[in-house]
């Protein structure tokens, strides 16, 4: 590709376009950009650009006012924020003038758009955003990988697909770049490192992007009516039995508000809710030969819990996917919601919800004889295509987009993209802005996660079809899970498992299943 | 003589009732487009919301709505043009000539309308992938045209069939060629039919969903799948944006339909019913 | 039109300047572009779907013979979706036809016919996916229907429409009926307006009641028009997946999963292209046979005016 020399030659013409486009978008950079003073001063001074990657410039005004955030408050630890430690001069020297194409779900394109100009001002690398509708993303991506000339260098996608792309060798390992550019990968919680980053024994294939966890959120005003006292994050719903016991009362406590919200829609949504609850019963999906064993006791108990809860759940629970559940919760129709962490943040934002202060994210309810295993379920990760002509530049873009400060401000903006860094989630200012943050960060050291199997998404779908039948009373839990286990085994067999050399190494994957293994539970 | 039911109070009550059934959801939908997001879903429905244009400003600022509109316009009008270019001569042949295989060809053309989109979606996706045409308005144009060609041919054919043979014969006697007859006599005489066909093809193209979803990803996004942007992202279902876009697409269609309303039934049935 | 016809000389001398071959070939030339275009875009997918249905795998295609078909025939979900398609489709079609016919009978001689037609047509002009969101909001997310039921004096609480097969199907039927009854209405009005008024008037003078006139005279005369409306609407119902995808996704337990949604989710959710292609091929064969017979039966060809 372009040599470093020609990179230097093109920089002058680059200057013009960069200055024009980024000056408009990155206010405050414009002036210094024209201080021509040495070889690289032609481009914006990194310090000036970085100064504007700040709460004052990137967090919505109404949220800053709501939480009394100062413009230069740091929701992160600058020593762990890669963009503030990176050697931008070196990056420019090697990569300025290149263009990387970044494929992203169409609906999330706009949020990525804001970062195009600052990154270009810092690195001289242009970003071309390729938005792909989520509905056809998988097929488009596969078609392009197989065609050998993908229209993108980097891609952000739903983490359950990591197994499909990883097993096929579509993704380029990043270990070398992470070491070279000193990206603080270790700052990610181990559950994200193991399940969004590393894949089996193939190295680090992804930089964790949207680092999700499922949690339980309650409305204190309604809980108070039922409990007769204040709500405690640990004790008020200490176990799922407590939740089942409280559910009918919560359901009656206020007109128009239902007791329980959860996602039991047909397909993968129902599977995730089941995994969440069954994990607390000690759910293991597979034995060490990758044979499904989720139809055991823990799986059945988890499903029975869902059935018991669904009796007092909001109407439409059997069709509830995440968008539907989110709408109902933020609209104030639910007293106690089992969902992703962002439900706990978005509820506090006046433009998204009317709940305001009436929301509290509690510690994962425990189960007698079970395990403490808060579930890390189905976020997204970002990877480099093995076909990319500019893998290193693509990597630098991903490192920028996933850097601690930008991720922290995503969370402060409650836009649903979640940070996975210890240095961010333990930051006191961050915790003040994001209500679920403390409980969430403490949960991560015990996190449970399903392995990113090849065809993992199809497996999630098939299990979910059967769980949906249980929720609507068409099947018994045990029978449904038995049938699901047979189906899952068939899918895996079709995809190369149980034939001597499994497509995914069990020993390398197993440590990511449950971070709480061998640790004493906190409660 | 007994009183006609349709003029009795009962009859008009039924009509008014159905008018209400048609209109009330539309009015409600319009209020959705006008209210802030946190008033759309609540413990009890809010029938009289705060009216706010803020959403509009926000949606127009954050999303390239005009480019969706432009894509719709280009793809739809291009497809209509292709349909007419190919369809008018075909309709002329089917309507005005007797030749071997005419019935079969006519029915084959019509039967392509009956194909299930889900059944051909995958191959169409692969086909355009191989042609390197994914995510272009050209691909949308080609698909919309293929989808509507059969209707266009049959609508225009039904109008051409009605033209008396004598006119053609006279012109032929005067030495006009077949092409001239088509261009100078037949086409002007069935212009209402051609316009009807064009409008109906435009409406179907405007609303096409499945193929569009599969083909368009960034550059080619038209209005019909722009809705997917407001339901699949980390922001959940944004109902007021969905309502707003729906009305944006609705008004041009309404205008077209009003313009051809007397020919609508004939068009929708491809001439099988003389409207 | 007829004025011109009268002026035209009535001689029937054919054009002379063309060779017999050209005269024979001319209509085929006119048809060729359309035929080639349609064949390319319909035949190719058909062939590809057949080819793909014989393979399995997502990345490396492996020969699978007829196994996809075998698995499909054993797949309960496929048969359930077929049954749902027929069941839901025929109920929807029936309800739409009855309402449309009633409205058409009330409207067709009214001086206000045009005004009513515009009002009744409005739902049809929205994008199908938008209408699905509208009904999802009215029934489920926004609780509007349940609230109206309560205000009408029947307090069932927040009705869970998605909990039973009956109510979830009801929602889908309502959404389709609301949007597409206008389609049949427009056709039926045209049919009624086009029929011979004298027969009816004569019957009326004989003292026949309006019900007898409608059922014994108007309706039988309308048969072909009704048939065409039902065929076109039926095909559309068969192909509609937006509502299922947006409102129910097949819940509860698959009771609202239609064939087109089954194919869609197999191909674009489970990414089993081979399996989905096999289902597509079966659907294609059925629709082609149906289309060919229905089309021949109900659409007139030929040059006669």
Describe this structure as you would to a colleague.
The complex is a heterotrimer of chains A (523), B (275) and C (305). With 523 residues, chain A is of the alpha/beta class. Chain A is built from 27 helices and nine strands. Helices cover 46% and strands 9% of the residues of chain A. In chain A, the strands form two sheets. Chain A has a five-stranded mixed beta sheet. A four-stranded mixed beta sheet of chain A has the order 6-7-5-8. With 275 residues, chain B is mostly helical. Chain B starts with 8 loop residues before the first helix and ends in a 7-residue tail after the last helix. In chain B, helix 3 (65-96) runs parallel beside helix 6, helix 3 (65-96) crosses helix 9 (191-207) and helix 7 runs antiparallel to helix 8 (178-189). Chain C is mainly α. In chain C, helix 10 packs antiparallel against helix 13. The radius of gyration of chain C is 25 Å and the shape is flat. The model of chain C is unreliable at 1-16 (pLDDT under 50). Chain C contains 13 helices and two strands, in the order H-H-E-E-H-H-H-H-H-H-H-H-H-H-H. The chains are: A alpha/beta (523), B mainly alpha (275), C mainly alpha (305). Chains in contact: A-B, A-C, B-C. Chains B and C meet through helix 1, helix 3, helix 4, helix 5 and helix 6 of B and helix 1, helix 2, helix 4, helix 5 and helix 6 of C.
What would you say about this model in short?
The complex is a heterotrimer of chains A (523), B (275) and C (305). Chain B has 275 residues and is mainly α. Chain B has 13 helices and no strands.
Q: Find the count of extended strands of chain B (DSSP E, 2+ residues).
A: 0
* Count, helices of chain C: 13
Strand order of the largest sheet of chain C: 1-2
Major sheet description of chain B: none
Radius of gyration of chain B over all CA atoms, rounded: 23 Å
Uncertain stretches of chain C = 1-16
Shape, per Cα inertia axes of chain C = flat
What's the helix count of chain B? 13
Helix content of chain C: over 70%
The oligomeric state is: heterotrimer
- Which class of secondary structure composition applies to the elements of chain B? mainly alpha
Could you describe the largest sheet of chain C, including whether it forms a barrel?
Answer: 2 strands, antiparallel
């Amino acid at each position: 590709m372009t040599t470093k020399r020609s990179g230097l030659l093109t920089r002058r013409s680059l200057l013009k376009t960069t200055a024009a486009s980024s000056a408009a978008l990155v206010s405050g950079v414009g002036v210094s950009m024209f201080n021509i003073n040495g070889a690289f001063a032609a481009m914006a001074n990194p310090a000036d650009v970085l100064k504007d990657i700040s709460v004052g410039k990137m967090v919505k005004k109404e949220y800053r006012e709501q939480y009394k955030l100062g413009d230069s408050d740091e929701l992160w630890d600058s020593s762990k924020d890669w963009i503030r430690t990176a050697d931008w001069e070196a990056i420019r020297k090697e990569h300025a003038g290149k263009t990387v194409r970044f494929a992203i779900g169409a609906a999330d394109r706009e949020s990525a758009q804001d970062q195009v100009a600052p990154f270009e001002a810092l690195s001289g690398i242009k970003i071309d955003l390729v938005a792909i509708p989520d509905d056809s993303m998988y097929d488009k991506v596969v078609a392009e990988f197989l065609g050998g000339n993908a229209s993108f260098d980097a891609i952000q996608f739903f983490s359950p697909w990591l197994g499909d792309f990883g097993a096929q060798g579509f993704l380029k390992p990043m270990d070398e770049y992470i070491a070279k550019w000193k990206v603080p990968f270790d700052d990610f919680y181990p559950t994200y490192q193991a399940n969004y980053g590393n894949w089996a024994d193939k190295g680090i294939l992804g930089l964790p992007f949207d680092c999700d966890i499922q949690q339980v959120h309650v409305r204190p005003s309604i809980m108070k009516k039922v409990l007769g006292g204040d709500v405690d994050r640990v004790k008020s719903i200490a176990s799922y039995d407590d939740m089942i016991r409280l559910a009918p009362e919560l359901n009656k406590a206020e007109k128009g508000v239902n007791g329980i919200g959860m996602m039991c829609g047909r397909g993968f949504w129902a599977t995730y809710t089941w995994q969440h609850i069954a994990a607390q019963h000690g759910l293991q999906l597979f034995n060490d030969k990758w044979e499904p064993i989720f139809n055991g006791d823990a799986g059945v108990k988890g499903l029975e819990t869902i059935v018991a809860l669904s009796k007092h759940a909001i109407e439409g629970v059997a069709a509830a996917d995440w968008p539907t559940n989110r709408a109902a919760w933020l609209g104030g129709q639910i007293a106690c919601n089992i969902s992703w962490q962002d439900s706990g943040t978005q509820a506090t934002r006046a433009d998204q919800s009317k709940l305001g202060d009436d929301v509290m994210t509690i510690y994962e309810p425990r189960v007698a004889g079970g395990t403490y295993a808060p579930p890390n379920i189905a976020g997204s990760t970002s990877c480099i295509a093995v076909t990319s002509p500019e893998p290193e530049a693509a990597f630098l873009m991903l490192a920028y987009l996933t850097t601690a400060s930008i991720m922290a401000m995503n969370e402060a903006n409650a836009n649903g993209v979640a940070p996975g860094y210890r240095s961010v989630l333990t930051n006191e200012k961050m915790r003040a802005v994001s209500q679920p943050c403390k409980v969430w960060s403490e949960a991560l050291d015990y996190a449970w996660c399903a392995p990113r199997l090849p065809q993992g998404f199809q497996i999630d779908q098939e299990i979910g079809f059967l769980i949906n039948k249980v929720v609507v009373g068409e099947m018994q839990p045990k029978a449904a899970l038995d049938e699901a286990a047979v189906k899952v085994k068939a899918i895996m067999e079709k995809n190369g498992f149980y034939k001597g050399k499994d497509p995914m190494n069990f020993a390398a994957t197993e440590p990511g299943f449950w971070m709480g293994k061998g640790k004493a539970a906190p409660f | 003589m007994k009183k006609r039911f349709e003029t009795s109070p009962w009859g008009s009550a039924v009509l008014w009732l159905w008018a209400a059934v048609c209109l009330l959801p539309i009015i409600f939908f319009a209020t959705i487009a006008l209210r802030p997001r946190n008033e759309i879903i609540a413990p009890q429905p809010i029938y009289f919301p705060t009216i706010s244009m803020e959403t509009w400003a926000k949606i127009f600022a954050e999303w390239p709505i005009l480019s969706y509109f432009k894509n719709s316009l280009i793809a739809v009008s291009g497809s209509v043009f292709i349909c007419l270019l190919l369809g008018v001569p075909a309709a002329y042949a089917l309507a005005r000539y007797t030749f071997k295989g005419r019935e079969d060809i006519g029915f084959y053309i019509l039967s392509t309308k009956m194909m299930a989109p889900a059944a051909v979606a995958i191959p169409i996706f692969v086909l355009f992938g191989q042609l390197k045409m994914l995510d272009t308005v050209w691909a949308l144009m080609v698909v919309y045209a293929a989808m509507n060609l059969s209707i266009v041919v049959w609508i225009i054919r039904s109008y051409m069939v009605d033209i008396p043979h004598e006119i053609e014969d006279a012109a032929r006697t005067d030495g006009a060629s077949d092409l001239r007859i088509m261009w100078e006599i037949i086409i002007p005489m069935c212009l209402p039919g051609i316009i009807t066909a064009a409008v109906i093809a435009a409406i179907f193209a405007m609303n096409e969903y499945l193929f569009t979803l599969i083909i368009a990803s960034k550059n080619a996004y038209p209005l019909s799948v722009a809705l997917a942007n407001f339901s699949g992202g980390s922001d959940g279902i944004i109902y007021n944006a969905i309502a707003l876009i729906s009305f944006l697409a609705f008004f041009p269609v309404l205008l077209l339909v009003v313009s051809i309303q007397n020919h609508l039934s004939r068009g929708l049935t491809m001439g099988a019913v003389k409207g | 039109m007829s004025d011109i016809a009268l002026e035209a000389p009535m001689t029937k001398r054919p054009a002379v300047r063309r060779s017999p071959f050209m005269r024979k070939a001319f209509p085929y030339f006119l048809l060729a572009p359309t035929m080639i275009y349609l064949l390319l875009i319909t035949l190719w997918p058909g062939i590809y779907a057949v080819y793909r249905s014989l393979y399995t795998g997502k990345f490396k295609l492996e020969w699978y013979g007829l196994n996809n078909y075998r698995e499909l025939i054993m797949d309960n979900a496929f048969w359930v979706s077929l049954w749902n398609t027929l069941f839901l489709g025929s109920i929807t079609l029936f309800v739409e036809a009855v309402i449309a016919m009633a409205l058409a009978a009330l409207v067709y001689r009214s001086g206000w016919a045009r005004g009513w037609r515009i009002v009744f047509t409005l739902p049809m002009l929205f994008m199908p996916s938008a209408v699905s969101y509208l009904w999802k909001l009215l029934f489920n997310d926004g609780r509007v229907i349940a609230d109206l039921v309560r205000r009408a004096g029947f307090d069932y609480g927040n009705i869970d429409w998605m909990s039973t097969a009956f109510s979830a199907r009801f929602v889908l039927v309502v959404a389709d009926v609301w949007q597409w009854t206008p389609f049949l209405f427009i056709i039926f009005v045209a049919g009624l307006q086009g029929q011979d008024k004298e027969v009816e008037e004569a019957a009326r003078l004989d003292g026949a009641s309006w019900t007898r006139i409608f059922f014994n005279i108007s309706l039988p005369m309308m048969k072909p028009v009704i048939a065409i409306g039902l065929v076109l609407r039926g095909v559309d119902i068969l192909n509609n997946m937006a509502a299922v995808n947006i409102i129910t996704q097949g819940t509860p337990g698959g009771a609202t999963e239609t064939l087109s949604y089954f194919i869609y989710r197999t191909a674009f959710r489970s990414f089993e292209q081979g399996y989905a292609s096999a289902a597509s091929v079966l659907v294609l064969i059925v629709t082609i046979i149906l289309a060919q017979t229905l089309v021949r039966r109900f659409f007139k060809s030929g040059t006669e005016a």
